[in-house]
Amino acid sequence: MNNLTLLAIDTSTEACSVALLHQGEKTHLDELAERTHTQRILPMVDSILAQSGIGLNQVDALVFGRGPGSFTGVRVGGGIAQGLALGADLPVIAVSNLTAMAQAAYEQQQATQVITAIDARMNEVYFSQLVAEKVRSEFGEFLQWNEIIAEQVGAPTRLLEKLGELQGEWTTVGTGWAAYEALQNLGANTTITLPSAQYMLSLAVPMWYQKQTISAVEIEPVYLRNEVTWKKLPGRV
């Protein structure tokens, strides 16, 4: 792993973050930039590479948060990732924003049972339920997240119905718990609310060794919503 260099970016929520794994060390930059992702992300990439004294062409792969998240944020992240990867001829590793927050819960709180919920607006949340297990491979031991509830979008009540009767200790992460009254009791102890690129690095390392990479032209942001409904303005068709 000390010879592996990964650059991660994420703009899928109001958070904007970049992280670098280089010579076995991780560095990261995180900002709240709800409407300025396009202005901030590339300077942040330049800054973190300069801090480590390397160029983009010395990176082994580009990692990006492929969603779910805000439509604009996910689209921006996919576009920036594609541009960087094409420009430097880099393979790409796409990481779920929901799983990245579960990884944060593990690294910060040693949580291995996590329920994620990001506010999706329109009275809906993006959510998943995940359990971690340690897996041994020829590349060493790593953490693998298994979905109990596959990531999806729905009303807060749908999430509660899917969860049913929870057994054991579950950690909640994401903005969705505080956003909706129906979820506030279950998510009262939520402290991790937004994804960060630094935890995407942890997920990407085993994916790299297992050759789970794609090319820049294969990048597909994950919105989970098939359509978005807008209210028609008076007089408009």
Q: Tags for this entry?
A:
single chain, alpha/beta, Nucleotidyltransferase, domain 5, 2 domains, four-stranded mixed sheet, globular, disordered C terminus, cytoplasm, Gcp-like_dom, tRNA processing, tRNA threonylcarbamoyladenosine biosynthesis protein TsaB
Task: Provide an overview of this structure.
- One of its GO terms (cellular component) is cytosol.
- Pfam families: TsaD (PF00814).
- It comes from Alitibacter langaaensis DSM 22999.
- This is tRNA threonylcarbamoyladenosine biosynthesis protein TsaB.
- By secondary structure, this protein is of the alpha/beta class.
- The chain folds into two domains: 6-96 and 195-218, ATPase, nucleotide binding domain (Nucleotidyltransferase, domain 5, 2-Layer Sandwich); 97-184, 2-Layer Sandwich (Nucleotidyltransferase, domain 5), CATH 3.30.420.40.
- Helix content is 32%, strand content 29%.
- It contains seven helices and nine strands.
- It has helices at 37-52, 71-88, 97-109, 156-163, 176-179, 181-184, 197-209; strands at 6-10, 15-22, 25-32, 61-65, 92-95, 113-119, 125-137, 140-154, 171-173.
- It has a five-stranded mixed beta sheet, with helices on both faces. Strands 8-7-6-9 form a four-stranded mixed beta sheet.
- Helix 2 links the parallel strand 4 (61-65) and strand 5.
- The termini are far apart.
